[in-house]
Amino acid sequence: MNFVSIRIITDDIDRLVEFYEQVTGMTAERPAPVFAEFVMPTCTLAIGHSKTAQLFGADSVVAGNNRTVIMEFRVNDVDAEYVRLKPLVGDWVQEPTTMPWGNRSMLFRDPDGNLVNLFQPVTEDAVKRFEGR
Question: What positions does the domain VOC occupy (predicted)?
Fold first, then answer.
């Protein structure tokens, strides 16, 4: 089994796609006006309009209602990303902090309230854990 993607359902796809284009520095692929993808080497971040949730069954997904998942992106320099993203992000949860497990991490919420973690392994053990990933 391979983990392929995570999908965010939103009522405002253009706003969320623009936000993640700025965060990732990538241009989203838009195979349909109601769907976008950020295809990365390790996983894909997909964004679908709430209209697409109807395809999964009534009330199976509610846009902007997630408080249990953290999307994590490994970066080269958390502190530099913090400076770059500070004007863009409206809801900071945690400024750059070194965590007990050896990652330097910062957390913020996207415009729909989804939690995003940008991190970099900084201790020897943390760097070793991420070798080959």
Answer: 2-121
